[in-house]
Amino acid sequence: MRISVFGCGYLGAVHAACMAKLGHEVVGIDVLPQQVAALSRGEAPFFEPGLPELLTEAGASGRLAFTTDAAAAAEATVHFICVGTPQKPGENAADMRFVNSAVDAVLPLLKAGDVVVGKSTVPVGTAEAIARRIHDAQPGAELVWNPEFLREGFAVKDTLHPDRFVYGVADTEQGRAATATLDAVYADALSDGTPRIIADLATAQLVKVAANSFLATKISFINAMAELCEATGADVTLLADAIGHDARIGRRFLNAGVGFGGGCLPKDIRAFMARAGELGVDQALSFLSEVDSINMRRRVRMVDLAREQCGGSIVGRTVAVLGAAFKPDSDDVRDSPALSVAAQMQLQGAKVTVTDPEAIHNARKKWPELAYASTVKEAVQDADVVMVLTEWSEYVALDPEELAPLVRGKQIIDGRNCLEPATWRAAGWAYRALGRP
Ligand code: UGA
């Protein structure tokens, strides 16, 4: 198949490379010349395991090209819209500028039989408007809304082997032809038995935000339980293990800690609430506002815990923050709880040094006022408190005995409940965590 991919950020770059890996002819289009230049050289503009190898392999095959020129999509028959929908500054709603300009760019190129595939996360109702514009511009072209569920850090695997496909598509002959075209694109995964759900446009758009809202709710649920554990002396990790054994609940996404961040969950629940308000059903999602509040309270509590550890004040205290990325195996610092806590500590008078295996470059751009160190050993030098805020495997594996001679105070705060308290305590450290005695 000949494929174009509009938007070569996280979603689009991975999608383009994976489509080429599947044997399709792919052109990726982005408005940022530096993004296009990096991808054309086979370099991933962000940290994602497996992507550099895939870009090199696909580039060498001659099936993958990147350009800033939207006209290059004219040859393609399947056009993926993979641009971002960030939160609007000062509002909960999603900023639809990039989706609108991608649609503007693709419309004049459409031929009869072409399929436009929407993958961006959008407010429900967007796809219907795009479908109308497509039919006005080229009655023989069709829209399929095909939300993406990839996780950063597992993006290549999730794209090549998704756990399900959702197609939102008109129940017409042309819609069925578009379904067959998309089936040909995903033939490999479909032949492996990946479930495929055919839905209307509204359902397909809702599936994505409903899934992210559920995940955010699950995390905030366990973090709310952590607040109860803190008030009662209970242990939230044991609680999660115990309730997680109930298959109806499940243990995944029940890790209590400093909460969720990133470029998706926080902005998606807010955009969903904003859209519900426009639709007159804001009450249905008012619980998401509580989910958001619980999540944000964890960051405040984290700073309070550090203050308690420092004997009541963090002013002038030296704090080492291990982790800047919003989660491990990513260099993404968008709405990162780790960076948000580090910045708060600094603003409240602590001397904060942050380290991260991959995200220092991005963190420094966002918070140039913080001090950065490239290794854990440098970061913890003379620290009064060490805080683990992103559970990179190398932090989980830290040896408390090795770290002890480097710090001023043997005080560790485990913001992700990822360390073994007994090991740290046995080595003479004061161990504190959220939701644990
Ligand atoms: C999320 C969804 O998981 C994907 O399915 C979705 O496709 C993606 O958003 C998107 O909308 O594009 P992602 O943002 O990569 O993926 O990150 P997650 O793995 O969901 O983690 C989100 C945040 O929750 C992280 O800050 C993580 O540390 C936190 N988290 C996760 C917890 O605090 N506890 C948990 O138990 C799990």
Give a written overview of the molecule.
This protein has about 425 residues and is α/β, with parallel strands linked by helices. The protein has two domains: about 1-200, Rossmann fold; about 215-435, Rossmann fold (3-Layer(aba) Sandwich). It has helices at about 10-20, 35-40, 50-60, 95-105, 125-135, 155-160, 175-185, 185-190, 200-230, 235-245, 265-280, 285-310, 335-345, 360-365, 375-380, 395, 400-405, 420-425, and strands at about 1-5, 25-30, 65, 80, 115-120, 140-145, 165-170, 195-200, 320, 350-355, 370, 385-390, 410-415, 430-435. Strand 10, helix 14 (about 360-365) and strand 11 (about 370) form a beta-alpha-beta unit. About 45% of the residues are buried. The chain binds uridine-5'-diphosphate-glucuronic acid (UGA). Uridine-5'-diphosphate-glucuronic acid binds next to helix 9 and helix 11.
Question: TL;DR?
Answer:
By secondary structure, this protein is α/β, with parallel strands linked by helices. Helix content is 44%, strand content 13%.
Provide key terms for this protein.
Rossmann fold; 6-stranded parallel beta sheet; alpha/beta; binds uridine-5'-diphosphate-glucuronic acid; globular; 437 residues
Secondary-structure blueprint:
Elements: E1 2-6, H1 10-21, E2 25-29, H2 33-40, H3 51-61, E3 64-67, E4 78-81, H4 97-106, E5 115-118, H5 126-137, E6 142-145, H6 155-160, E7 165-168, H7 173-185, H8 187-191, E8 196-199, H9 201-232, H10 236-244, H11 265-278, H12 286-309, E9 318-322, H13 337-347, E10 351-355, H14 360-366, E11 371-372, H15 376-379, E12 385-388, H16 393-396, H17 400-403, E13 411-414, H18 421-426, E14 430-433
Parallel strand pairs: 1-2, 1-4, 2-3, 4-5, 5-6, 7-8, 9-10, 9-12, 10-11, 12-13, 13-14
Helix pairs in contact: 1-3, 9-11, 9-12, 11-12, 12-13
The site of uridine-5'-diphosphate-glucuronic acid (UGA) has 22 residues, from helix 9 and helix 11.
